[in-house]
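=== RUN LOG ===
request id: a7f3
mode: sequence -> structure
chains: 1
length: 285
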Amino acid sequence: MNQLDLRPECVRLIKALSGDRADRFVESSLLPALGKAVGIKDPSIEEVLEELQSGYKCLCAVFAHYAFARRGKDRNHLSEIALEALKRTTSEDEFGLFLSRSDASVLWDNFVVVAKEMGHKPMEQLNRGVVAGMAELAQEIFEIDQRGSIAAWIIDGIRKTGRLEPQFFRIVDVRGVGPKLTSLLLRDIVHLSGLENSVETADRIYIQPIDKWIRLLAPYVIDEEDADSYADWILAGKIFKYARRAGVSPVRFNMGATWFGMREVRVQENLERLVNHLVSGKPTS
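=== RESULT ===
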């Protein structure tokens, strides 16, 4: 397989999306969000990665940026409630004591209190799984490594085995955390740690979250019929294959495509015109 297997316009689009748009995603979206969650202003990748080694800071980042990412307009409110509940439950210095508990029920109890104080319903059926479940994952990890950092656990697994499948299915097992959120978290940790090429090929589908924009861009990237109708896991594999054929990082393509959709295309009606502009240099007007 090589670049010559792809139509030239596909290669141009893949390279355009994996270039400075991927950089903009990281520098203007991912790093500021994670930096805020772990208490760093104008953070570098190295600084964020270092802070995520802390079990407490990592759980803060999970609650702030990932756990409620698919909750629409309620996302920020839920993150704020979860972070305040965590703050009332424990601290970075005392996090080991919290991680030594048998479960995270005390964290959920505080979530309920904070939610009511802020005028929101706790919605136990929807929120308890992700709030307590991600904290209980940190507790489970703490039993293994005495750190309890979900990010460090992911990184350690790649370095030791090259695998991501065990981590993927363990996180998906948390009630309320689906495959898309899990892949989003795994993708970002893999990129920040620079370990994309260390992940076994078979497991790289787990670092290709399929969002609205990836699916809409699929027919322009994948030279196959019905590309936009593939199941997520099949589409993830195709994206990986085509990005590799074009000679770019599949993770960078994924990030750049999301940035392009959210910040440049914005509405589906603009997609074809802006894709044509990227591929051929035609004016966008």
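=== NOTES ===
The mean pLDDT is 95.
The first helix runs from residue 8 to 18.
=== END ===
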